[in-house]
Amino acid sequence: MLTAIIPARGGSQAIPRKNIVNVGGYPLIAYTIAACKLAKNIDRVIVSTEDEEIASVAKKYGGEVPFMRPSEFSQNRSSDLGFLGHFFENIDVEEVALMRPTTPFRDPFLIDKVIEEYFSMRDEITGLRTVEEIRDNPYKVCRLQENICVGFFDHFKGEKHYNNMPRQIFPKAFTGNGHIDIVKKETVLCGRIFGDKLFGRVCDKMIDIDSPFDLKLAQQEIESGSILLDFIKKRNDYE
Predict the structure, then answer these.
(1) Residue 192 and residue 93 share a domain
(2) Within 13 Å and on the Cβ side, how many CA atoms surround 74?
(3) 55 near 65, Cβ under 8 Å?
(4) The domain boundary residue, chosen from 172, 195, 229
(5) CA–CA separation, 131 and 212 (whole Å)
(6) Hey, which residues does 42 pair with through a beta bridge?
(7) Are residue 98 and residue 153 in the same domain, yes or no?
(8) Which residues pair with 183 in a beta bridge?
(9) How far is 112 from 238, CA to CA, in rounded Å?
């Protein structure tokens, strides 16, 4: 069993009050709380916030707020190390499931499966992230240097002009998708979030709400019937 932490600060530039914005009739954070409470391998759901309104909403939907996060760990440029370190100072556990509220449409069954996989290799890794393959391979993107497109790497297998090479020859690339991350206390205390042996668990692509466009996409998914909301309505059955 794992404790889950949901980081939810009050400030947001792209979407004001993003963590409690209305998505399909529910505040955004409610989806993550509900998914955690439906997962059989999560025994506590703790919300880390400095914001009283977010704390109140979190409690309404079944989250715990045993402490308020210090404001210095809630700024635009604050790193995850700040709120994670504060969490481990207050909660006596050796690892935590990091569940960001901007990824609302999780599968509780997959959460349980990933946690079981984590414990089967716990002593061999320093952390876990769920990842998804990205379409735009890093070797196919560029940066502008005085309005000139240049690559991000010196070369690919000795070829400096690699940008127009077939994408199939490049190694696959992945990015974290927020379904579930697992962070160890010992790595955080050493000043690193995931350590140097981070296991990447590949899973399906997730909607991550970071912009008004993402929010609109999430609303469309709900309206189309692609997303099942019953697990939120049934939350009380699992408390």
Answers:
(1) yes
(2) 15
(3) yes
(4) 172
(5) 23
(6) 2
(7) no
(8) 96, 127
(9) 15
